[in-house]
Description:
Layout: E1 12-17, E2 23-30, E3 34-38, H1 49-55, E4 60-64, H2 81-95, E5 99-103, H3 105-116, E6 122-126, H4 141-149, H5 153-164, H6 174-184, H7 187-195, H8 197-209, E7 223-229, H9 235-247, E8 251-256, H10 263-267, H11 269-281
Parallel strand pairs: 3-4, 3-5, 5-6, 6-7, 7-8
Antiparallel strand pairs: 1-2, 2-4
Helix pairs in contact: 1-11, 2-3, 4-5, 4-8, 5-6
Organism: Dictyobacter halimunensis
InterPro entries: AB_hydrolase_1, AB_hydrolase_fold, AB_hydrolase_sf
Keywords: Hydrolase
Amino acid sequence: MITSYMRTAPAAANFVFSQDGTKISYLTMGSGPAVIVIPGVLSTASDYVAFARALAGHFTVHIIERRGRGESGPQGADYSIRKECEDVFALQQKTGASFLVGHSFGGFVALEAARHNPSFTKIAVYEPGVSIDGSIPMDWIPGNQKKLAEKRELDAFVEFSLSAGPERVRQTPHWLMKLMLPLFLSPRELKQRLSLLHESIREHQETARLDSSYENYREIAAGVLLMYGGKSDSSWVQLALERLSAVIPQSETQRFPRLNHFGIDKKAPREVAEVVCAYFLK
Protein backbone atom coordinates (compact mmCIF):
# COMPACT_ATOMS: atom_id res chain seq x y z
CA MET A 1 0.00 0.00 0.00
CA ILE A 2 1.40 3.38 -0.94
CA THR A 3 1.38 5.53 2.18
CA SER A 4 3.24 8.58 0.90
CA TYR A 5 2.14 10.25 -2.34
CA MET A 6 4.68 12.94 -3.18
CA ARG A 7 2.50 15.48 -4.99
CA THR A 8 4.91 18.37 -4.94
CA ALA A 9 8.36 16.80 -4.54
CA PRO A 10 10.57 18.02 -7.39
CA ALA A 11 12.27 15.58 -9.72
CA ALA A 12 16.02 16.03 -9.92
CA ALA A 13 17.53 15.97 -13.43
CA ASN A 14 20.71 13.95 -13.90
CA PHE A 15 22.56 12.26 -16.72
CA VAL A 16 24.75 9.27 -17.50
CA PHE A 17 26.76 8.28 -20.57
CA SER A 18 25.81 5.13 -22.43
CA GLN A 19 28.27 2.60 -23.83
CA ASP A 20 28.60 4.47 -27.14
CA GLY A 21 29.13 7.82 -25.40
CA THR A 22 25.57 9.11 -25.88
CA LYS A 23 24.35 11.33 -23.06
CA ILE A 24 21.24 9.92 -21.40
CA SER A 25 19.24 12.21 -19.13
CA TYR A 26 16.95 10.98 -16.36
CA LEU A 27 14.69 12.30 -13.59
CA THR A 28 15.05 11.10 -10.00
CA MET A 29 12.76 11.31 -6.99
CA GLY A 30 11.98 9.49 -3.76
CA SER A 31 14.04 7.24 -1.49
CA GLY A 32 14.50 3.52 -1.04
CA PRO A 33 15.43 0.71 -3.45
CA ALA A 34 16.07 1.94 -6.98
CA VAL A 35 13.52 1.58 -9.81
CA ILE A 36 14.06 2.53 -13.46
CA VAL A 37 11.01 3.62 -15.49
CA ILE A 38 11.14 3.41 -19.31
CA PRO A 39 8.67 5.60 -21.27
CA GLY A 40 6.82 4.57 -24.41
CA VAL A 41 6.63 5.85 -28.00
CA LEU A 42 5.93 9.60 -28.43
CA SER A 43 6.48 10.04 -24.68
CA THR A 44 9.10 11.72 -22.52
CA ALA A 45 10.25 11.24 -18.93
CA SER A 46 8.01 14.07 -17.69
CA ASP A 47 4.91 12.11 -18.77
CA TYR A 48 5.62 9.56 -16.01
CA VAL A 49 6.26 11.93 -13.12
CA ALA A 50 2.85 11.30 -11.54
CA PHE A 51 3.45 7.54 -11.65
CA ALA A 52 6.96 7.97 -10.24
CA ARG A 53 5.77 10.22 -7.43
CA ALA A 54 3.25 7.58 -6.44
CA LEU A 55 6.13 5.10 -6.03
CA ALA A 56 8.52 7.57 -4.44
CA GLY A 57 7.37 6.96 -0.87
CA HIS A 58 8.96 3.51 -1.00
CA PHE A 59 11.47 3.69 -3.86
CA THR A 60 14.06 5.92 -5.46
CA VAL A 61 12.56 6.25 -8.94
CA HIS A 62 14.66 7.08 -11.99
CA ILE A 63 12.73 7.89 -15.19
CA ILE A 64 15.03 7.49 -18.17
CA GLU A 65 14.76 10.04 -20.97
CA ARG A 66 15.12 7.77 -23.96
CA ARG A 67 17.31 8.65 -26.93
CA GLY A 68 16.02 11.42 -29.15
CA ARG A 69 14.21 13.21 -26.33
CA GLY A 70 14.86 16.19 -24.09
CA GLU A 71 18.44 16.49 -22.88
CA SER A 72 19.38 12.99 -24.03
CA GLY A 73 21.43 12.51 -27.18
CA PRO A 74 19.97 11.51 -30.57
CA GLN A 75 19.01 7.98 -31.53
CA GLY A 76 21.95 7.85 -33.92
CA ALA A 77 22.38 6.28 -37.35
CA ASP A 78 22.94 2.83 -35.83
CA TYR A 79 19.90 2.97 -33.56
CA SER A 80 18.57 -0.37 -32.34
CA ILE A 81 16.89 -2.00 -29.37
CA ARG A 82 20.41 -2.95 -28.26
CA LYS A 83 21.23 0.74 -27.88
CA GLU A 84 18.12 1.23 -25.74
CA CYS A 85 19.22 -1.66 -23.52
CA GLU A 86 22.73 -0.22 -23.22
CA ASP A 87 21.20 3.06 -22.04
CA VAL A 88 19.22 1.21 -19.38
CA PHE A 89 22.30 -0.75 -18.30
CA ALA A 90 24.32 2.46 -17.95
CA LEU A 91 21.65 3.91 -15.68
CA GLN A 92 21.41 0.67 -13.73
CA GLN A 93 25.17 0.65 -13.19
CA LYS A 94 25.00 4.18 -11.78
CA THR A 95 21.92 3.65 -9.60
CA GLY A 96 22.11 -0.02 -8.62
CA ALA A 97 18.48 -0.54 -9.67
CA SER A 98 17.15 -4.08 -9.54
CA PHE A 99 13.54 -3.10 -10.41
CA LEU A 100 12.38 -2.06 -13.85
CA VAL A 101 9.09 -0.62 -15.17
CA GLY A 102 8.24 -0.18 -18.86
CA HIS A 103 5.23 1.08 -20.79
CA SER A 104 4.35 0.15 -24.39
CA PHE A 105 7.61 0.33 -26.39
CA GLY A 106 9.31 0.95 -23.04
CA GLY A 107 7.87 -2.37 -21.88
CA PHE A 108 9.43 -4.02 -24.92
CA VAL A 109 12.77 -2.43 -23.97
CA ALA A 110 12.33 -3.63 -20.38
CA LEU A 111 11.78 -7.23 -21.48
CA GLU A 112 14.83 -7.11 -23.75
CA ALA A 113 16.93 -5.55 -20.98
CA ALA A 114 15.83 -8.17 -18.44
CA ARG A 115 16.61 -10.97 -20.91
CA HIS A 116 20.19 -9.77 -21.22
CA ASN A 117 20.76 -8.71 -17.62
CA PRO A 118 19.83 -11.13 -14.80
CA SER A 119 20.63 -8.54 -12.11
CA PHE A 120 17.10 -7.19 -12.59
CA THR A 121 15.09 -9.15 -10.05
CA LYS A 122 11.58 -7.87 -10.80
CA ILE A 123 10.08 -5.98 -13.71
CA ALA A 124 6.61 -4.61 -14.36
CA VAL A 125 5.42 -3.90 -17.89
CA TYR A 126 2.20 -2.16 -18.91
CA GLU A 127 0.99 -3.32 -22.34
CA PRO A 128 4.50 -4.03 -23.65
CA GLY A 129 4.86 -3.33 -27.39
CA VAL A 130 5.61 -6.89 -28.47
CA SER A 131 4.49 -7.71 -32.01
CA ILE A 132 3.47 -11.28 -32.88
CA ASP A 133 2.86 -12.36 -36.46
CA GLY A 134 2.53 -8.72 -37.50
CA SER A 135 -0.01 -7.91 -34.80
CA ILE A 136 1.30 -4.34 -34.41
CA PRO A 137 0.59 -2.56 -37.73
CA MET A 138 3.55 -1.23 -39.68
CA ASP A 139 1.95 -0.43 -43.05
CA TRP A 140 1.71 3.26 -42.12
CA ILE A 141 5.50 3.75 -42.07
CA PRO A 142 6.19 4.47 -45.80
CA GLY A 143 3.39 7.04 -45.99
CA ASN A 144 4.55 8.56 -42.72
CA GLN A 145 8.09 8.94 -43.99
CA LYS A 146 6.80 10.65 -47.13
CA LYS A 147 4.65 13.10 -45.18
CA LEU A 148 7.48 13.93 -42.80
CA ALA A 149 9.81 14.57 -45.75
CA GLU A 150 7.17 17.02 -47.01
CA LYS A 151 7.00 18.70 -43.56
CA ARG A 152 3.38 17.57 -43.09
CA GLU A 153 3.81 16.52 -39.47
CA LEU A 154 0.15 16.74 -38.45
CA ASP A 155 -0.92 14.61 -41.42
CA ALA A 156 1.77 12.09 -40.50
CA PHE A 157 0.52 11.96 -36.91
CA VAL A 158 -3.07 11.47 -38.10
CA GLU A 159 -1.98 8.59 -40.33
CA PHE A 160 -0.07 7.00 -37.45
CA SER A 161 -3.03 7.41 -35.08
CA LEU A 162 -5.48 5.85 -37.54
CA SER A 163 -3.20 2.93 -38.42
CA ALA A 164 -1.64 2.06 -35.06
CA GLY A 165 -4.33 3.29 -32.66
CA PRO A 166 -7.29 1.41 -31.16
CA GLU A 167 -9.49 -0.54 -33.58
CA ARG A 168 -12.51 1.63 -32.82
CA VAL A 169 -10.89 4.76 -34.32
CA ARG A 170 -9.40 3.21 -37.46
CA GLN A 171 -12.46 3.89 -39.61
CA THR A 172 -12.46 7.61 -38.75
CA PRO A 173 -11.98 9.76 -41.87
CA HIS A 174 -8.55 11.37 -42.07
CA TRP A 175 -10.02 14.87 -42.24
CA LEU A 176 -12.15 14.30 -39.14
CA MET A 177 -9.26 12.90 -37.10
CA LYS A 178 -7.17 15.89 -38.13
CA LEU A 179 -9.83 18.18 -36.68
CA MET A 180 -10.27 16.09 -33.52
CA LEU A 181 -6.67 15.60 -32.43
CA PRO A 182 -6.14 19.23 -31.29
CA LEU A 183 -9.30 18.83 -29.19
CA PHE A 184 -8.04 15.68 -27.46
CA LEU A 185 -4.48 16.87 -26.86
CA SER A 186 -3.17 20.04 -25.26
CA PRO A 187 -0.91 22.24 -27.40
CA ARG A 188 2.09 20.97 -25.42
CA GLU A 189 1.12 17.33 -25.90
CA LEU A 190 0.50 17.77 -29.61
CA LYS A 191 3.81 19.59 -30.12
CA GLN A 192 5.66 16.83 -28.26
CA ARG A 193 4.11 14.06 -30.34
CA LEU A 194 4.79 15.81 -33.61
CA SER A 195 8.42 16.34 -32.60
CA LEU A 196 8.93 12.60 -31.94
CA LEU A 197 7.47 11.15 -35.13
CA HIS A 198 10.87 10.41 -36.68
CA GLU A 199 11.93 8.58 -33.51
CA SER A 200 8.65 6.68 -33.49
CA ILE A 201 9.31 5.30 -36.97
CA ARG A 202 12.72 3.94 -35.98
CA GLU A 203 11.28 2.41 -32.82
CA HIS A 204 8.49 0.69 -34.73
CA GLN A 205 11.01 -0.60 -37.26
CA GLU A 206 12.83 -2.28 -34.38
CA THR A 207 9.54 -3.74 -33.16
CA ALA A 208 8.94 -5.11 -36.66
CA ARG A 209 12.48 -6.50 -36.91
CA LEU A 210 11.94 -8.49 -33.72
CA ASP A 211 8.39 -9.56 -34.59
CA SER A 212 7.51 -12.99 -33.12
CA SER A 213 10.77 -13.22 -31.15
CA TYR A 214 8.84 -13.46 -27.87
CA GLU A 215 10.07 -17.03 -27.28
CA ASN A 216 13.37 -15.41 -26.28
CA TYR A 217 11.72 -14.23 -23.08
CA ARG A 218 11.93 -17.74 -21.69
CA GLU A 219 15.44 -16.59 -20.76
CA ILE A 220 14.20 -13.90 -18.34
CA ALA A 221 15.26 -14.78 -14.79
CA ALA A 222 13.34 -11.91 -13.16
CA GLY A 223 9.80 -12.04 -11.92
CA VAL A 224 7.57 -10.22 -14.39
CA LEU A 225 4.29 -8.43 -13.73
CA LEU A 226 2.28 -8.18 -16.97
CA MET A 227 -0.30 -5.37 -16.81
CA TYR A 228 -3.01 -4.28 -19.22
CA GLY A 229 -6.12 -2.15 -19.36
CA GLY A 230 -9.55 -3.71 -19.71
CA LYS A 231 -10.58 -0.87 -22.02
CA SER A 232 -7.60 -1.16 -24.38
CA ASP A 233 -9.13 -1.67 -27.79
CA SER A 234 -6.11 -3.15 -29.56
CA SER A 235 -6.03 -6.84 -30.44
CA TRP A 236 -2.23 -6.97 -30.26
CA VAL A 237 -2.35 -6.27 -26.50
CA GLN A 238 -4.32 -9.40 -25.60
CA LEU A 239 -2.24 -11.57 -27.93
CA ALA A 240 1.03 -10.27 -26.48
CA LEU A 241 -0.12 -10.82 -22.89
CA GLU A 242 -1.28 -14.38 -23.65
CA ARG A 243 1.98 -15.37 -25.32
CA LEU A 244 4.20 -13.63 -22.78
CA SER A 245 2.46 -15.20 -19.80
CA ALA A 246 2.96 -18.60 -21.43
CA VAL A 247 6.71 -18.26 -22.01
CA ILE A 248 8.07 -16.12 -19.15
CA PRO A 249 9.04 -18.52 -16.34
CA GLN A 250 7.92 -16.28 -13.45
CA SER A 251 5.03 -14.08 -14.47
CA GLU A 252 1.81 -12.68 -13.04
CA THR A 253 -0.92 -10.86 -14.95
CA GLN A 254 -2.87 -7.85 -13.67
CA ARG A 255 -5.90 -6.41 -15.45
CA PHE A 256 -7.14 -2.88 -14.78
CA PRO A 257 -10.83 -3.01 -15.85
CA ARG A 258 -11.36 0.77 -16.14
CA LEU A 259 -8.11 1.67 -17.89
CA ASN A 260 -6.85 1.81 -21.45
CA HIS A 261 -3.36 1.85 -22.98
CA PHE A 262 -2.53 5.09 -21.17
CA GLY A 263 -3.48 3.94 -17.68
CA ILE A 264 0.04 4.12 -16.30
CA ASP A 265 0.91 7.62 -17.49
CA LYS A 266 -2.35 9.54 -17.98
CA LYS A 267 -5.52 7.86 -16.78
CA ALA A 268 -4.66 6.45 -13.35
CA PRO A 269 -0.92 6.48 -12.59
CA ARG A 270 -1.46 6.15 -8.85
CA GLU A 271 -3.73 3.11 -9.26
CA VAL A 272 -1.13 1.37 -11.38
CA ALA A 273 1.65 2.41 -8.99
CA GLU A 274 -0.22 0.80 -6.08
CA VAL A 275 -0.09 -2.55 -7.85
CA VAL A 276 3.53 -2.17 -8.95
CA CYS A 277 4.56 -1.16 -5.44
CA ALA A 278 2.87 -4.20 -3.89
CA TYR A 279 4.52 -6.49 -6.44
CA PHE A 280 8.01 -5.09 -5.88
CA LEU A 281 7.70 -5.19 -2.08
CA LYS A 282 6.41 -8.73 -1.67
